[in-house]
Amino acid sequence: MKVSSGVDILVVDDEADIRELIAGILEDEGYSVRTAADSNAALRAIKARKPSLCVLDIWMQGGGLDGIELLSVIHELDPDIPAIMISGHGTIETAVTAIKKGAFDFIEKPFKTERLIMVVQRALELTSLRRENKRLRSQAVVPDGLIGNSAAAQLLRSTIAKVAPANSRIMISGPAGSGKELVARMIHEVSPRAKCEFVPISAAGMTPERLDVELFGEEGESGRPRKIGVFERAHGGTLFLDEVADMPPESQSRILRVLVEQRFTRVGGAQDVQVDVRVISSTSKDLSTEIAAGRFREDLFHRLNVVPVRVPGLSERRGDIAELVQYFIDRIAAAQGLPKRILSEDAMATLQVHEWPGNVRQLRNNIERLLILATGSPSEPITAHMLPSEVVESATAGAIRPERIIALPLRDAREVFEREYLSSQIVRFGGNISRTANFIGMERSALHRKLKSLGLAHIRSDEDDI
Ligand SMILES: Nc1ncnc2c1ncn2[C@@H]1O[C@H](COP(=O)(O)OP(=O)(O)OP(=O)(O)O)[C@@H](O)[C@H]1O
Known about the structure:
Blueprint: E1 8-12, H1 16-28, E2 32-36, H2 39-48, E3 53-57, H3 67-77, E4 83-87, H4 92-100, E5 105-108, H5 113-139, H6 151-163, E6 170-173, H7 180-189, E7 198-202, H8 208-216, E8 218-219, E9 225-227, H9 230-233, E10 238-242, H10 249-261, E11 263-265, E12 272-274, E13 278-283, H11 287-292, H12 298-304, E14 307-310, H13 321-336, H14 345-353, H15 359-373, H16 389-397, H17 402-405, H18 410-428, H19 433-440, H20 444-453
Parallel strand pairs: 1-2, 1-3, 3-4, 4-5, 6-13, 6-14, 7-10, 10-13
Antiparallel strand pairs: 8-9, 11-12
Helix pairs in contact: 13-15
The structure holds adenosine-5'-triphosphate (ATP).
């Protein structure tokens, strides 16, 4: 099947004949293809225009980055560009590493034309599916629920219920990917404004001029709008200023004026537009630092930060991880027509001790990758060694450090170990002693005695009293 247009593929290989061969095959399929002989040329091409997909040779001679290093740089620029790796004989292990680092798939040289075409098609399909899911999610009238039952998740739910009915502006802070936009959507959905739109806007990557048009719209002939801005679209509803600290100073001043005056003019226009909008903002940066550095207006901060809401990072609510994992498995499997998988106890434990710097979004991406790449029959559990290497490595690195306990006599060292081990296990099982005892292979009553002797009796859950 020929693909008409719009798909732009970048082929990076230091061998001219392979490069041309791959380009020729893909062009015959109707794709538009650009080529690069090394990583520098590749990065220049990507910066000039974002490709729909990259085909990267793993081993490239002549200086510059190799394919795997290039893959990391590309994904730093844009994690959504799918990459297919080309590996030579004997480099399968490296190709597997590339997949763990986020490559979509790999093709072994010498390869069959059909295999190349099939992998490219699959990668493009998956990417467009993801884009569509993202679009649907951003349009969804009813947001996904807030998953999790940790004390932090419960507090967040009760805060949402409290702040939603009021009309006050809200500033949601929390690390990237922790769920700030989800919380904003939930506030909108349970507020009296739910019948009108929730409109998110992010300033990332926009020039101040473009952002002005996005925020306030643009006026065409005879005072008629050529483009409606988000302030107008959110009339009666909620405007979500995502990562508000990314707003350039010019836009900060204009937003402040709208908040004070409740009116604005469209770009290129003279007519006042009046709106009734509730503004919810989010930040993953410490705004007091941004204010001190002169990057964020203090008067705007006070206008926006009427009710502060903090969304904790995932490492502060590890008790939610098991539930989130199950939720993502169910959702992603259903959305992408993939078989559901179960996780072995050790795989789940590894996910529960990982730091998750990218928070819930990173956990979600890892689950999606696991479901897509999982080998073996769907009835076989996914084990810890099938998880991405950085997750497995950080789990072992977090274990009791020998340099800390080496200075202790055995009895005290054992106590340090038992204390850390048992408290982590209990947190992992949401404070449930029976499940903890079952997993660690101890009688429930013996575990109770042990916790008491270690001074840890308080961390068990209430319903678990003996
Ligand atoms: N408690 C939760 N239950 C279910 N899904 C969640 C939860 N928290 C976050 N998510 C999901 O994780 C992803 C990231 O969340 P979201 O976009 O709200 O984070 P964010 O803090 O706004 O991120 P950023 O700072 O990068 O804009 C989304 O897919 C969201 O639906």
